[in-house]
Amino acid sequence: MNDHPSLGLDDVVHQRVRLGILTIAHEARRVEFGYLRTQLDLTAGNLSKHLSVLEGAGLIEVEKGYEGRRPRTWITLTPAGTTALADEIGRLKQLIARVETTPED
Fold it and tell me: How many domains, the chain?
């Protein structure tokens, strides 16, 4: 059985934008849609698609509401999202360790 760390990478989490969303949501605990859009340099439509994928996988919760009269959307990492992010980071660290310990030619 092959146990190479790359085999355990989760395509839902590992995609660059979604990994960024999960990381920012982890740091902030609750993050506003506009902040994510700005930080990740995305269009609203593109960000919405990535959020839908993460929400469908149960990794985030999306809450819509108002701040005063302005509509807002907040994103929170779920416990499953926290676990998935930690697992992904662990596998990435394993990959990095393999490169750092590989003798140079």
Answer: 1
